[in-house]
């Protein structure tokens, strides 16, 4: 006789929306309280180390000890906030908004949507094919392709926090201009025949829009999911970038950087763009390097041209895009975008000289 009995544990009730909101508000309040203590905390950490005062090593470690928690905390807040905002935009809805748009208006819409949509090399192929299959014009697709990595919410949030609102807004305006004009130019060249054949053969399909409405709790969960996905993938790049910035801050002579990225050297902007293409990073990882370069006296336009080149024209991204673009189309893409980045670098140096 079988005497075993099965027991079913009662399901735990889902926390109420009020509790979710209370915990979220409390966590944000703790974030601000902790952020206010970063300077004394970093000074205390450095004071514990047996370092010679005012040495290169001490300056480098001080930069690293302060910037690491600062950038990671800023990234966490920005990513969570934009994860909530992004819950209003699905890939299907994005494609539907862009499909059938005329060039010009479509380029503006695509570049604007790129601010709120995280784009990286790993998502280049499915996004590109998805947009093409939904009937989005090639030039409009390229406006999105350029804007998403270069002026995404992480880049703008960190620029605002580290360099001020004037730099962030000017970068936003120029970055949008590069994305819009570059996409418009590529569209006017009518280079659809330079797509890979399998992409040209993709048939347009219907776009299914989600009909369910997300609750406040769902949107908070979307922010937490963004934290897990984005911060979980980029934190190593951020620390690597801060380490590089710390080395620059502590050891690289100011005169050397000024001679390479100074305002007076006309060739510094093209050199910065060429230097950035072979590198691979993201906005969060490269901004600490930008901060260190500016601290050493490098010209703002030259440094931002370097940053835009690293983010928008990285060699690994070009290799992945080769799956959908011919070599000729990639060359046009690089040439048009690089021209826009050069213009931004020179204009920034003129405005902020």
Explain the overall architecture:
It is a single chain. With 353 residues, the protein is an all-alpha fold. The protein has one domain (53-203, 216-351). The protein is built from 17 helices and no strands. The model is unreliable at 203-211 (pLDDT under 50). This is Permease.
Main traits of this protein?
membrane, DUF318, mainly alpha, cell membrane, 353 residues, UPF0718_permease, 17 helices
Which helices and strands occur, and which strands form pairs?
Layout: H1 17-35, H2 38-48, H3 56-86, H4 91-98, H5 105-115, H6 124-133, H7 138-150, H8 153-163, H9 165-188, H10 197-200, H11 216-251, H12 254-261, H13 268-276, H14 283-295, H15 300-312, H16 315-321, H17 327-351
Helix pairs in contact: 2-3, 3-8, 3-11, 5-7, 5-9, 7-9, 8-9, 8-14, 9-17, 11-14, 13-15, 14-15, 15-17
Provide the gyration radius in Å: 23 Å
Structural class: mainly alpha
Poorly predicted sequence stretches spanning 5 or more consecutive residues = 203-211
Q: State the end-to-end distance.
A: 90 Å
In round numbers, the mean pLDDT is 75
Largest sheet geometry: none
* Number of alpha- plus pi-helical segments: 17
Domain count: 1
Q: Compute the number of strand runs.
A: 0
- Overall geometry comes to flat
- Could you give the order of the helices and strands? HHHHHHHHHHHHHHHHH
Strand content: under 5%
- As a percent range, the share of helical residues equals over 70%
Oligomer: single chain
